[in-house]
Structure formats: structure tokens, C-alpha cells
Amino acid sequence: MRKFDLIEPKSLAEACALLGNHPDAKAVAGGTALLTIIKQGLLLPKLLVNLKKIIDGSAITFDPVQGLRIGALATINEIETSEIVNRHYPALAEACHVVANIRIRNMATIGGNLCHGDYQSDPPTVLAALDACVEVMSAANVRQLALTDFQLGSYETALQPGELLSAVVIPPLPAGMSGHYVKFTTGSSEERPCAGVAALARIDGGVCRELRLAVGAVSAKPSRITAEALAKDKILTADLITTIAAEAARAIDPIDDVRGSADYKRHLVGVLTRRALEQLANGKTEMKS
Ligand SMILES: Cc1cc2nc3c(=O)[nH]c(=O)nc-3n(C[C@H](O)[C@H](O)[C@H](O)COP(=O)(O)OP(=O)(O)OC[C@H]3O[C@@H](n4cnc5c(N)ncnc54)[C@H](O)[C@@H]3O)c2cc1C
């Protein structure tokens, strides 16, 4: 392990000021991604700014008008077990539950997951379907941007020097919207996803009024699938599900990587989309707003 200095600020503002004043410093939260990179010698920061001692950085709160606010320092396990998240956004709890294993989920934070920017992640896919925004803070101001604008590419985010992600904000869902996240790994169930699909729908008297479909882990960032519009005011029949799943597989632009070829991922997205839509059509999991 390389040598570095460690500073433990007590507030996000203090942490932003430290990062702004030390260009070669790096923020560390759970350390599950960063410390691996340091051990591998890929990054050698002289100073680590430990965010874990920050007070109130992990609060999870819900307001019927503003929606859900998750402090960036909330661990993946705190999100998956949060009574608030399970009541209002169970698909997010579902996605957090399938991240790695309980040891990682106890350490890893949602801020670290998003700022690390690894495209083979689970939470960003469901957050894209939930129309999530992120709150980014610097010593000078706070700005909010859509998650899809925050994630620029593989290991690339819109974070500027001296900025920290302070929270994830999710708008309230339309009443009656339910949803699922389905993941497939090519190794053990604890591994990063080869592909992940989040599907949320508002079904009223058997008719789908709104469908949201997001695909992740197959290319540099999660994407919303325009075929979601095909379900508007329709019954999710087997034929319609087959059409939307085929369209989702066609619409993505997957990349080859160690977890599978682009062709394999395209096929997988069709299968996962069909499974997620079948669960919705069968009325599993209620998302209460
Ligand atoms: C064995 C293993 C299996 C995994 N499996 C999965 C999986 O199945 N699904 C999945 O989604 N993920 C998986 N992961 C990834 C894991 O979710 C991430 O490593 C974790 O979420 C990163 O969070 P952290 O708090 O540990 O970040 P850290 O390692 O502390 O930091 C990661 C990066 O984010 C930056 N950072 C951290 N917090 C902030 C902040 N608030 N503002 C600005 N920058 C910040 C750091 O400077 C660093 O660049 C796995 C990881 C491991 C090690």
C-alpha cells in the first residue's frame, strides 16, 4: 500500500475547501473502489480526504412534494434496508440489494458508486428510470443536474475539481407506479452486472398509462429506451412485451468487455426486458407514492 496523508473533515463544505486547495488530493468514502486502485498503483494521491466522518452526510428523507433525498454518504446497505426507500421506491432497494455482497454494501456509498463512474453498476440504471438528479457541491455553490448528465462516460463524470456529490434526489413517483430491477451476471451472483434493466409502469385497470425502461451496464452509461412509449395506453400483452423487448435490444449500443460480447449483451437485454415487463404485467411489487 502506498503512503498518503489523511484528513477527516466534519462537513461537506470543509471537504470541498480541502479538495479545492489541494489539487492532488482525492476524496474517499467507503474506499471499496478507490483503495483498490491505489493498491494497484493506478492512482497515487498524496492526500486522502475521508468523507466518512462528515456529520449528516448519509441522511435519507422523503417529502411528498420534493421526493426522496439520499445523502451521498449513505451506504448501499442503508439504502436497501431503508424503510422510506422500501415504501416509496422499492425498485431502488431491489437494485441496491443485488450490489456485490453484504461486506461491500456495508462500506460502499451511493456517492462513491456514482462518482467512480464504472458503467458496470446496478444503482445508476434504476436511478435513470426514476429520473434521479444529483446535487453537486463546491466551496462556492451547490448545483443540481440530471443523473444522465452527471455520468458522461466510462469512469467519467461531470464533477469539477473541488466538487463533491452531496446527494441524490428522486422526484415523487406518479401514484400507482410499480417497478423492478433485473440483473444478470456472467459469474457469481455477487459480481458486477453484465446487463441490468429497470422497468417501472403505472398500470390502471389493466392498461399501462406510463412505462419507463432503462438499460445499464452494457455501454458507457445507462440509457432510457424510447420503446417505452409503445406501451402508453396499451395492455401489456405477450405480443407487446415481445415487441418492446426486441426494440430495447435493437436500440442499445453495447460494447464488448470481459463480461460478454456486444452481441451477447444485446440478446441479454431482450431477455431481461421481457422478464421485467412480464413481472410488471403480472402485477408484482407495488410502488407506493
Ligand atoms: C468486489 C466488488 C464487487 C462489486 N460489485 C458491484 C455490483 O455488483 N454492482 C455495483 O453496482 N457495484 C459493485 N461494486 C462497486 C461498488 O459499488 C463501488 O466500489 C462502491 O459503490 C464505491 O463506493 P465507495 O463509497 O466505496 O467509493 P470510494 O472507493 O470511496 O470512492 C470511489 C470514487 O468516488 C469518489 N467519491 C466518493 N464519494 C464521493 C463524493 N461524495 N463526491 C465526489 N467524489 C466521491 C472517490 O474520490 C473515488 O474516485 C463492487 C465493488 C467491489 C470491490
Neighbour order of strands in the largest sheet: 4-5-10-6-7
Uncertain segments: 285-289
Average of the residue pLDDT scores: 95
Question: What is the highest CATH level, the class of the largest domain?
Answer: Alpha Beta
Shape: globular
How far is the first residue's CA from the last residue's CA? 47 Å
Count of DSSP-assigned helices:
11
- Taking all Cα atoms into account, the compactness measure Rg is 19 Å
Main β sheet profile: 5 strands, antiparallel
Helix content: 25-40%
Name the ligand types: flavin-adenine dinucleotide
Structural class: alpha+beta
User: What percent of residues are in strands?
Assistant: 15-25%
Summed up, the domain count is 3
The count of strands amounts to 14
Order of helices and strands, N to C?
A: EHEHEEEHHHHHHEEHEEEEEEEHH
Report on this model:
The chain has 289 residues and is α+β, with helices and mostly antiparallel strands. It has helices at 12-21, 34-39, 76-81, 83-88, 90-97, 102-107, 110-116, 123-129, 147-150, 238-251, 262-281; strands spanning 5-7, 25-28, 47-50, 60-63, 67-71, 133-137, 142-146, 151-153, 156-157, 164-170, 177-184, 195-204, 207-216, 223-224. The longest helix has 20 residues, at 262-281. The relative contact order is 0.13. Flavin-adenine dinucleotide is lined by residues 26-34, 51, 72, 99-100, 104, 107-109, 111-113, 115-116, 121-123, 159, 164-165, 191-192.
